[in-house]
Amino acid sequence: EKKPYQEIGDDLRAQIAQGRYPVGSRLPPERHIAETYGVSRTIVREALLMLELQGTVDIRQGSGVYVLRIPHENDSEEEQLLSSDVGPFEILQARQLLESNIAAFAAKMATRADIDNLKRIIEQEQRAIALNDTAQDNAR
Predict the structure, then answer these.
(1) Strands (E) located in the chain
(2) Measured between alpha carbons, how far is 69 from 71 in angstroms, rounded to an integer?
(3) Each residue of 92-115: pLDDT tens digit?
(4) What is the CB neighbour count within 10 angstroms for residue 120?
(5) DSSP SS3 for 57
(6) 43, 21, 25, 23: which is closest to 34 by C-alpha?
(7) Against a cut of 0.70, is the pTM above it?
(8) Is the dihedral of CA 68, 74, 76, 80 positive or negative?
(9) 33 Cβ partners below 8 Å, 6+ apart?
(10) What is the DSSP letter of 55?
(11) Which residues pair with 26 in a beta bridge?
(12) Could you say which of 5, 10, 23, 76 is the most buried, measured as most Cβ atoms within 10 Å of its Cβ?
C-alpha cells in the first residue's frame, strides 16, 4: 500500500510524463496541489521532494517547482527505490551522512593542484553564467 505522498508524487510524475507539464514549466504552487488532492502541504512537500530526488523536478526556494526532465518507465533502480517504503527524508538523511563524509575525506586528500583545478572550474562557471552560456557543464 502506497503512502499518500507516493500516490501524489506518482500522479504528478505521470502528468509530467503525459506532457501536461513540459520541461522548463512550473508546477502549480504547493497550496494548489494540496487543495486538489485534499491533503496537507506537508504531504505535497514530500511528494515534490520525491520527484526532486528522482531528478524530475527542481525545487527553487521562493520561485517554485520546475520540471527538469520527462520521466520514463525504465528509470534507474534508485528512482524505483524512491517510490518504495523508504521516504524522501530517509534518503536525504542517508545522502547527507554519506556525502558529508565523502566531502570531508576529499578535503583532507586534496592536493594544491586539485584546489587550483577547482578554482579554474569555478572561474569558467562564473564566466558561463555571466554570458548566459548553458552549453558548458562545469558542475561535472
Answers:
(1) 57-60, 64-67
(2) 6
(3) 778 888 888 899 999 999 999 999
(4) 11
(5) strand
(6) 43
(7) no
(8) positive
(9) 8, 12, 27, 44, 47
(10) T
(11) 66
(12) 5
